[in-house]
Each structure stands twice: as C-alpha cells, then as structure tokens.
C-alpha cells in the first residue's frame, strides 16, 4: 500500500475532505490533492501534522510499518504548554513538539497590518498553522504565506510564492542594535501598506536604516533602503514549509 492509499483510507474512514484538512491545518488543498493522486509525497513535517490530525502513528502513515493506531497516551489533545503570548505546544511521540501559531495568508495581509498598529494585539480571528519544532520557544511567532517571486532564485534558499514560513518577532527595543542577519538572513517586514519577505544585507545604526535584498536576480528586484521608523514589525524567518510538498 502506497502513501496515497493510506491517506485515501483515512479520508474515507473519517469522512474528511481536502478542504477540511486545509482549513484545520493550512496544508493547501492542492498539496493534499497531489498526495491523493500520488504526484508527490509529504515531507517529515507534513507527515507529523497529518498523523497528529488523524491520530495515527507517523511511521505507519509515512511508510506503512507498525500499527496504524497510536496509543492514546502518546500525546493528548490538550496543549502541553501555552505560552504567555498564546502559542500552543503539543507533545509528539518522537520527542518533538507541534507548535501552533497564528497564520497570516496573503488574503489577510490588510487585516494583519491593521492589527499591527497595536503592537500588543493580534486578532484571534486569524487561522492557525502547525509547525514541528525541536524545542519550546518563547516570544511571539507567526506563520506567513509568501507572496510573489522576489525571493525565488531556483535554489534551496528560495522562498517561493505560496510557501509558508515560521517567523519570530524581534522586539522594537532591539532594532537599533546590530541585527543577527548572519544567523537569520531572511525576514518578514511589515509596513503600513504591505508585507515584504526580504534579506537584510546591510544596516546603518546611526541613520536607523536597513538595505533589503531579493534573491531573484531579475532587474526589477533591485536592493532598496528602508527607514526603520517606517517599519511596523520585523520577524526573522526560522523555518519554511514549501508549497511544493
């Protein structure tokens, strides 16, 4: 039995549609359709998310080995931990955690920008998205859907249109210090009228400016300068989930 057959079995058994999975986990309908048709197989992160969603063993779902049903004591439905910022962590059988964060798709950019004007407020009306992480992190984390192809250069570093990234907010009190762009080259930058995904390649501490860089070598994606006073939020990208998986 191939992965697509195991997934079809679960869909039929639970009476779940690809649309329902997308609404509940943010794995796109197109991605689920590709799984069902056998065009692609999921990466480890999506395997973990789907296994948790259907309450089955990850090993069985991934390669058909072992028992389908997982012991109830492996991980509960209640969060293992809810942080002060509202992030929920769920224990997994492999020692990792399923981290649930607010999800900002492209269609919700405008609403999110409005919310960002109140730096301590994030609407609970946003959808949520799960990432698999090795450890519990504190602070404010968000999942953003990437818009456009300015960060796509056909390399492993690419962030393509439709990818979903896990981003950690950097508090404004740290913006006038040196940004750790060597460790975190890719950033989500929220402005008053749009949300950008760029690399920060230079910073002028005296002027309070940053130079934003796109990976796409096309001429229309030239480097440009931003004043930090014009930025609403800075988040460094710590994990990516490709739209092609």
From TrEMBL:
A Pfam family reported for this protein in Swiss-Prot or TrEMBL: HTH_19
Domain HTH cro/C1-type: 27-61
Gene3D superfamilies xref list: lambda repressor-like DNA-binding domains, Umud Fragment, subunit A
Species of origin: Dysgonomonas termitidis
Record-linked SMART domains: HTH_XRE
SUPFAM superfamilies tied to this protein: lambda repressor-like DNA-binding domains (SSF47413), LexA/Signal peptidase (SSF51306)
Name of the protein this chain belongs to: Helix-turn-helix transcriptional regulator
Key words of the record: DNA-binding, Transcription, Transcription regulation
Domain of life: Bacteria
């Amino acid at each position: 039995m191939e992965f697509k057959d195991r997934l079809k079995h679960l869909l039929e058994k639970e009476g779940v549609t690809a649309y329902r999975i997308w609404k509940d986990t943010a794995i796109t309908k197109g991605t689920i359709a590709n799984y069902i048709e056998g065009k692609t197989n999921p990466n480890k992160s999506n395997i973990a998310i789907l296994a948790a969603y259907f309450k089955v063993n990850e090993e069985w779902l991934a390669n058909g080995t072992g028992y389908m049903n997982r012991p109830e004591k492996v991980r509960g439905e209640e969060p293992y931990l809810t942080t002060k910022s509202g992030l929920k962590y769920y224990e997994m059988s492999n020692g990792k955690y399923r981290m649930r964060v607010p999800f900002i798709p492209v269609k919700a950019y405008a609403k999110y920008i409005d919310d960002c004007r109140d730096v301590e407020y994030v609407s609970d009306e946003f959808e949520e998205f799960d990432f698999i992480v090795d450890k519990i992190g504190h602070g404010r984390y968000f999942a953003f859907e990437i818009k456009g192809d300015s960060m796509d250069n056909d390399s492993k570093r690419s962030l393509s249109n439709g990818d979903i990234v896990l981003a950690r907010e950097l508090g404004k009190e740290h913006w006038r210090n040196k940004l750790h762009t060597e460790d975190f080259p890719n950033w989500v930058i929220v402005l008053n009228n749009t949300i950008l995904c760029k690399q920060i390649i230079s910073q002028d501490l005296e002027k309070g400016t940053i130079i934003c860089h796109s990976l796409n070598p096309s001429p229309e994606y030239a480097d440009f300068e931003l004043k930090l006073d014009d930025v609403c939020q800075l988040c460094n990208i710590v994990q990516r989930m490709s739209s092609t998986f």
